[in-house]
Design brief:
Elements lengths: L13 H23 L8 H10 L1 E5 L14 E7 L1 E9 L2 E12 L2 E3 L1 H6 L6 E4 L3 E7 H10 L3 H21 L3 H23 L2
Antiparallel strand pairs: 1-7, 2-5, 2-7, 3-4, 3-6
Length: 199
C-alpha cells in the first residue's frame, strides 16, 4: 500500500522575474528624476512614489512638437533626456515667424502652468534630438495637491522664480526687479492653482 504524500511543485518563471526587475528599475528611475527637479522638492518620498506611477512615457524624435503655443493644457512634461527648443510666435497667429526663447536639456520640465493652472501653452516646444519625456496630467497630480493644499504655495514660489528668471533673460532685468516680479506672481499663482484644483 502506497501512502499518499503531498507534493509541492515549484515553477520558476524567469521572464516574470525579469519584467518585475525592469518595472522596479523604471519606477526607481522615475522617482530619482522627480527628486532631481526643483519643482518636486516639496513632495515627500511617498508622494513622489505615487507621482512616479502616474507618469506617462512619451518618446520624441528631432522635429517632433510635444506642445504648441495656444493649445489647451492640463499637463506638464518632464524632460528625462534629450534637448528641446522653446519658441514663441513672433506675431500673434503667425506660426512661421518663431523666436527662440531657450533650449532645455534633460533632466528638466516644461508646461508647468498647464498642469497647475490650466493656462494655454505660451510657447511651442520642438524636440531637437531624440527625447524621452514623461507627461503628468492634472488627474495624476490632483490627489496629492488635494491631500496637501499647502503645496500650492511652494509650487507657486518655484514657478514664479523660474518665470522671473526667464523674463530677466529676455529683458535683462536686475535682481531686484526679478524679486519684485516673483513676489507678485506667487500670490497670483497660489490663487490660480487653488481655483484650478478647487481647493
Amino acid at each position: 500500500m502506497e501512502i499518499p504524500i503531498p507534493r509541492n511543485e515549484l515553477f520558476i518563471n524567469p521572464a516574470g522575474d525579469v519584467r518585475a526587475k525592469a518595472a522596479t528599475r523604471e519606477r526607481d528611475a522615475r522617482i530619482a528624476l522627480l527628486k532631481s527637479l526643483e519643482l518636486f522638492a516639496p513632495l515627500t518620498d511617498p508622494e513622489r512614489t505615487a507621482l512616479a506611477a502616474e507618469l506617462q512615457p512619451l518618446p520624441f524624435v528631432a522635429g517632433d512638437v510635444p506642445t504648441r503655443q495656444g493649445e489647451t493644457a492640463d499637463s506638464l512634461y518632464i524632460l528625462a533626456r534629450g534637448q528641446v527648443g522653446i519658441f514663441r510666435n513672433a506675431t500673434e497667429g503667425d506660426a512661421t515667424a518663431r523666436q527662440r526663447l531657450a533650449t532645455l536639456n534633460g533632466p528638466n520640465y516644461f508646461g508647468e502652468m498647464g498642469l497647475l493652472t490650466g493656462q494655454p501653452r505660451t510657447a511651442t516646444i520642438v524636440a531637437e534630438s531624440e527625447v524621452l519625456c514623461y507627461r503628468l496630467d492634472k488627474a495624476g497630480f490632483e490627489a496629492i495637491i488635494r491631500a496637501r493644499p499647502d503645496l500650492a504655495q511652494s509650487l507657486s514660489q518655484t514657478v514664479a522664480e523660474r518665470q522671473a528668471a526667464n523674463d530677466a533673460t529676455l529683458a535683462s532685468l536686475s535682481k531686484e526687479a526679478r524679486a519684485r516680479a516673483t513676489g507678485t506672481r506667487v500670490n497670483e499663482l497660489v490663487r490660480r492653482i487653488q481655483q484650478f484644483f478647487g481647493l
